[in-house]
Give the backbone structure.
Amino acid sequence: MRYSSYLRSAILALDEYDGSVPLQSFLKTFFARDKKFGSTDRRTISQLCYCYFRLGKAATELSKEERILLALFLCSTVSHPVLQALKPEWDLHIGATVTEKMTLAHTGFNIESIFPWAGELSAGISHDTFSRSFLVQPKFFIRIRPGKEKRVKEKLLSAGIAFEELRSDALALPQGASLDKYLKLDEEAVVQDYSSQRVGDFFPGIAPGDTVWDCCSGSGGKSILAYDRQPGLQLTVSDKRESIMANLRRRFRDAGINSYKAMVTDLEKRLDPAIAKMFSAPPSLVIADVPCSGSGTWSRTPEQLYYYQPETTLAYQRTQTRILQNVLPVLSKGSHLLYITCSVFKKENEEVVERMVQHDGLKCIHQSMIVGYEQGADSLFTALLISE
């Protein structure tokens, strides 16, 4: 039977998968080994695997088959062919609420057991709502570059791509939309999570000529955001990965950012003396989007929730502290530090900020979670500090 075969294939994949690589990458390799899988097969089997991990730490006593079917029921809002074939009594109630579905399925677990670390959450996170968010596929977002709003929206409408306008420059789109066919990415619009876009609301005033250092720049999304807020800034970027810096340079070229300084350096180890020489004056703003557990993004990668071990949070906290200690020497009185994580754990958020305030001569102007799960977005922590 076709749908039983999908379930068996998903179980075979899960038996082999150990969490050491992203699930998306593993599944790509898994399907490549057997050419019998068509596009519908791959899509359905992948969905079953992702549903399995969306239950997080809940219902771990169930068999893989039981867990997949239960998760598919809880995650689905419209009739699903796998449930029609294998659990028709559940599929009849597909439009019920999650709470009603859990009663119908006799789950025996509390929704909050999906994410069982309520006491570790940063302020502003609702444990119940956050746990429920893992049952929902997050949305896909773009940020429109300044002056391109009308053009981008017209192109999307002409292409028949539906979108939800969250701000005049922030759009939510269907997952899997092929934007590169219709838009000039990075020139006209940037693929960027909505919460990440909102980080710009916490930038201090940046004047033309001010120096901004994005010290853990990744591929440069927040640097492009800062540039769009103030094109006259003096931009410096650094990251420890040469491959990601190559991607940043390509994106900067497409975005029309030609005047900047860039360096590959590992700030977990030390402050490279060459970094200090890159600044003609101390930075007005350092953006520190540091490595973290990524727990605020786990609804996109639920396998990370499933395999998460609490001790790794302390390891990230130590990494974050080392990076900040190596960044602080370039600050002068009045310099701002914008500390960012995509974590919901207070060990990586408030506790790190508290340490900087107590030991490093910084004053916290503002700190809060950017709660994204109500918009289908990631959740980020931001803290703006000033050197006294």
The chain has a mean pLDDT of 95. The CA atoms of residues 52 and 68 lie 5 Å apart. The domain at 195-387 is CATH 3.40.50.150 (Rossmann fold). The chain is about 40% helix and 15% strand.
